[in-house]
Amino acid sequence: MTRNVVISGGGTGIGLAAARAFAADGDRVLLLGRREQVLREARVPGALVRAADLTDVDDVRQTARFVAEEMGAVDVLVHSAGGSGLLEQRPERDDPLERIADDWSLNFRLNTLTAVLLTEALRHRLAEPGGRVLFLSSIAAYRGSGSGAYGAAKAALHPYAHDLARQLGPHGITVNVVAPGYIEDTGFFGDAMDDERRARLVGETSTGRAGTPGDVAATLHWLASPAAAHVTSQIVQVNGGAERGH
């Protein structure tokens, strides 16, 4: 059966890998992101695309209207939009506290607010039963991210997902979080990755390799499948053993 799948951040990295996995199953995919050209160049078979700033309430409302007109019900909602803010333009600040305020505000807008606003705008469109909501967190939610802001913003998704799972569970909808470790072949790190840092991150794994977008996409795809119908309110780590348990 063809499903309607909405993926934020669907033009690159993990979001794109997930989009290709769902499209390969014959699902109808909507790619959301801020850069329309990137979405169109993704060339996911049969995909709809819509440029949207998911930190903007009006843009999220318009996106929800687009989904209603073009798709109707949403079977799978994947939140892959986000990032550490390294690729964002920031105002010049002389005051260190103002720089910290900018960094934390930016990270929460990119990683928390985008997911919350889109979920709340579409929650009444989630298929009942059978709907799936999937959030992308990070290993940084457990061990920090250096500045603290990115890890904290990702960690904020965990209690939100748990609350949402309790609210939507009686409607036959599951809610889960996937927390990747170091994933190569994405634009996440910008120019901030060097050979020494890469070797350290790979060395922390038990598998002896970096993760790929396909590793995470496969986990998202399974959590959205009928086989995972009784899996909800879980945080699934995909990090090669770099962070254990929880």
Strand-pairing-aware structural class: alpha/beta
The proportion of residues in beta strands is 5-15%
Going by CATH, what is the homologous superfamily? NAD(P)-binding Rossmann-like Domain
Structural domain count: 1
Number of helices: 9
**CATH architecture annotation:** 3-Layer(aba) Sandwich
What does the main sheet amount to?
7 strands, parallel
Describe the structure in your own words.
This protein is an alpha/beta fold. The mean pLDDT is 93. Helices cover 41% and strands 15% of the residues. Strands 3-2-1-4-5-6-7 form a seven-stranded parallel sheet, sandwiched between helices.
Characteristics:
alpha/beta; single chain; 15% strand; Rossmann fold; 246 residues; 9 helices; 7-stranded parallel sheet; EC 1.1.1.-
What are the SSEs and their pairings?
Elements: E1 4-8, H1 13-24, E2 28-33, H2 36-41, E3 48-51, H3 57-70, E4 76-79, H4 96-122, E5 132-136, H5 140-143, H6 149-155, H7 157-168, E6 174-180, H8 195-203, H9 213-223, E7 234-238
Parallel strand pairs: 1-2, 1-4, 2-3, 4-5, 5-6, 6-7
Helix pairs in contact: 1-9, 3-4, 4-6
What can be said about this structure in brief?
Its EC number is 1.1.1.-. With 246 residues, the chain is of the alpha/beta class. It is globular.
